[in-house]
Design brief:
- The protein is α+β, with helices and mostly antiparallel strands.
- Strands 1-8-3-6 form a four-stranded antiparallel sheet.
- A hairpin with a 2-residue loop joins β4 and β5.
Length: 152
């Protein structure tokens, strides 16, 4: 496991930015090339107008999917309350030279994948064997699970 204190020590040379409640950190469809590491506060993640999660855990990373996949941001990230972040500009180059941070981002992403898999299983258990309507729902969950495991 990667120690968060060590990660923050490596990021200590990066600028810190504070966002006020309601402020947009990352916009779905935009490109910043940045990674944001939560120091304190809480944000909401919204995709296609749907609230996905509220995140308040120090060390949470945002912008990683866009940087690693060289794609625009896939969701809006909005400050739920006043929140501070380490900001890494030119994140791709930074990750190439900072293996500890790259490993940390990988650990964070694997945790997200594990949580998604556990949620899928819980939903499947809830709906399995409950009639034809639930069969379609379970089939959709199977498709989601397969998508989570496909390579880039």
């Amino acid at each position: 496991m990667v120690d968060l204190e060590a990660v923050f020590a490596r990021l200590s040379g990066s600028p810190i930015r504070t966002f006020d409640e309601g402020e947009l950190l990352l916009a779905e469809g935009s490109w910043t090339g940045q990674l944001l590491f939560l120091l304190q506060g809480a944000v909401d993640v919204v995709k296609d107008g749907w609230h996905i999660a509220r995140v308040d855990k120090p060390g949470a990373v945002f912008g990683d999917m866009a940087v690693l996949r060289n794609q625009p941001h896939s969701a809006d990230v909005i400050a739920f309350q006043r929140s501070s972040f380490f900001i890494v500009n030119d994140a791709e180059a930074f990750l190439r030279t900072e293996p500890l941070i790259a490993l940390y981002v990988a650990v964070v992403q694997s945790g997200r994948l594990d949580a998604a898999n556990r949620s899928l299983i819980a939903a499947k258990k809830q709906f399995a064997g409950k009639g034809k309507e639930s069969q379609a729902f379970v089939a959709t969950l199977d498709e989601i699970g397969a998508a989570l495991l496909r390579a880039a």
